[in-house]
Amino acid sequence: MLIALIARDKPGHLQTRLDNRDAHLAYINDTGAVAQAGPLLDQDGNMAGSLVILDVEDMAAGEEWAANDPYNKAGLFEAVELITWKKVIG
């Protein structure tokens, strides 16, 4: 199952993102659940959120992945949405 994780950072928390980026990227590599990922950018080009496409067994696995993401554990996100996604192009 593909799930789009869309997360928006809390305003003023760029340093939290930077401080936890290495752990977040290691988590992506270690779990093997991420098909695609990248930061959302604000109008100035600064990282301001995340778009992660998870390839997991079910929504519960996606929720567990999101809960254990170092960014989430660091309190970076203002909002996180998990949506079942269907790949059509690419």
From TrEMBL:
It comes from the Bacteria. Residues 1-86 form the YCII-related domain. Belongs to the YciI family. It comes from Leisingera caerulea (Phaeobacter caeruleus). This is YciI family protein. Gene3D superfamilies: Dimeric alpha+beta barrel (3.30.70.1060).
